[in-house]
Amino acid sequence: MILERFKREQEFQEEIAKAQLEIQDQTLKNVAWELHDNIGQLLSVANMQLNVVAKDIPGETLSRFEEIKDVIKKSLTEVRSLSKSLNSEVIQNLGLEASIQNELDRFNKLKFVSAELKINGETRLIDAKDEIIIFRIIQEFFSNSIKYSQAEKLMVTIDYFDDKVEIRATDDGIGFDMEAVDKGSGLINMLSRARLIGAEYSLNSSKNEGVSLFLSYSY
Length: 219
Fold this sequence. Notes:
Helix content is 62%, strand content 17%. The chain is of the alpha+beta class. It folds into two domains: 1-86; 113-219, 2-Layer Sandwich (Heat Shock Protein 90), CATH 3.30.565.10. A five-stranded mixed beta sheet has the order 1-2-3-5-4, with helices on one face. Helix 5 (128-149) links the parallel strand 1 and strand 2 (153-160). Helix 1 (2-53) runs antiparallel to helix 2 (59-86) and helix 2 (59-86) packs antiparallel against helix 4 (96-110).
């Protein structure tokens, strides 16, 4: 009786987690469309208008004008890159490795951190839905690292084996006390998502020792 009740409760919690993921994924997809189709289009138009105006700019102020154009161009590139990382359909098309690399490239371009991806072994196919969940876990780690860690370096390693893939993400930031930290929604989200796909998950940190994430997923 107790075992059945526990099983029902577990199934109920899994259904809630799945529903939350679906809602969140659709929200992110909508935001991605808005960034790409609306904001991206506005920046493109602004850049074209500046190209037209540039013909009438006197030489002494042209260099400053070119700087403004460069800022808009970089903003457009960032918006497009960000929209890719939010849209699950794009993630499916790119695959896990390219999606992670896209995030790290953004961090490097914006000079948030020095980020690197290493891949060992032969790339294996991962179930499309599970692949998105794995990416969202890694993305949550990135988000927390950029916001709070004050890290200078961010490292991701993907190791492919015959029966599983292991992913490690680490930063060299200020870290935190695992016992004292408030278990925020980000940390909870990573754990609940890992459980949904039956992945082994651990997050470790201590003050001034950075943060490390380990994820092991069986094919």
